[in-house]
Write a structure and sequence with these properties.
Blueprint lengths: L1 H16 L11 E4 L2 E4 L9 E12 L6 E4 L10 E3 L4 E10 L12
Antiparallel strand pairs: 1-2, 1-3, 3-6, 4-5, 4-6
């Protein structure tokens, strides 16, 4: 009986060790003037008011370009852009992660 219990324990350990490990989806975040904004909380789906000041964006998203605007509501022509995976800065008032032409929220 002891041999069966030991063998069962070994099988359980082997099965646990070979279980597939789930990998988490990459975090879609941006750091704007030192503050972290996360897509999972809807932070990147809105116009973010920051300035007027020099705005530094560290864009750690995989598909979203950050647009820096010199307006209170993220309208008009962007004064700066920061590509996905890049860092950049421009003088402005607001930041948005939407398409510059046509308005509206960014769509996947």
């Amino acid at each position: 009986m002891k041999a069966f219990a030991v063998a069962t324990g070994i099988v359980a350990v082997v099965l646990a060790a070979s279980a597939p490990v789930a990998t988490a989806a990459p975090q879609e975040i941006a750091i704007i003037n030192g503050l972290v904004y996360q897509d999972q909380y809807g932070d990147l789906a809105r116009c973010i008011s920051v300035g007027p000041m020099d705005i530094t964006v560290e864009n750690y998203t995989s598909k979203r370009t950050a647009y820096i605007y010199n307006s209170d509501d993220c309208t008009g022509n962007p004064v700066g852009t920061v590509a996905p995976g890049a860092k950049g800065a421009a003088y402005g008032i607001t930041v948005d992660f939407k398409k510059p032409a046509g308005g509206g929220s960014f769509e996947w």
